[in-house]
């Protein structure tokens, strides 16, 4: 038997230029390699190109380019670009070796599209909620389907011939599951434009999308519900219309939840991503607060505007601590998971030091030491610079092994809150950034529920 140490790896560069290339996928006939490509530098999550390399000629071309704002595609649908954290599915090609299937974030949904690699035609497959392709074999698709109110199901479908892809019929593989006392509740998705001008007028008309989970009308005699505003992290990520165990938990406890895709979220064109770096702590905070007000107005007969709470993690934690400081009399209590509280302290300790520079509006150079002006700007846009304004009780949930947003961010913030007499509590877990160990996630949810419940009761008295 051959010794593995005797195997010689022969590798060669076959793609062009210097860029972020990932998830190469070979077509069934072995004559094409599809892959995603994006520019080096800037935000981690951005709009990607879908590229094709002919084999063995090594001729490379762009099939789907970066979309700056939106692109009109087959059947008059709008396409906002390719955004995916996991890249192309391991198997994404259809058996004709000319079409492939991708899933991408589109505003508040995950949509799946068939792409014709010959001419770049994009056909969005019909959907309600989010459809994420998990596997492709021959012309069969396995799709993970869910909405905020309906747990995940696996669907199976066969992609029709060219030009008929939008007629695909999906069949349930797994049964429909209902959550007692919750699945009957409605969810609502809508958008609005912030009337406060963006510092760069180019981005002022980018829409903000909201996903609301809870009753949309009140039954006779029912009390109004408290609202949890839950902005996502990233910041270049998104809240999507897919099942959330955590949101369902709080809705079952009597809250309504609103998720906000502020400007900077993915799925709104590359302009949406580019609108935030250099404006963190300003436009994102304002977008989330305006979205909360918009939600309260839309469901005024259901929601109690005197009982609004904040929950968020990572950059979402950055936002909720900022909101607590900028609107000290509006939000009644906060729960922050591994929150970014001081960007100026991050470059030396985070595993992604470039994040601090990019989101603060600077170009990252790996060999450059930040000067005083750079660090001053990072501090200025951080929640810690406004800590004297905070009144709302703050619960901090922290992973002691977090390399992304190290625990020092929350530990020091907690100490400063205590020194100012602000009610605060910190739980330290043997976990990392996502706090997703089963026992840790469960403990976090219970403590958030107890924290918010305590201050819900106090606001009622």
TrEMBL record:
GO MF entry, a single one: serine-type endopeptidase activity
Gene Ontology BP terms: proteolysis
Record localization: Cytoplasm
Key words of the record: Cytoplasm, Hydrolase, Protease, Serine protease
Enzyme nomenclature, EC number: 3.4.21.-
Similarity-based family: Belongs to the peptidase S9C family. Belongs to the peptidase S9A family.
Protein name: Prolyl endopeptidase
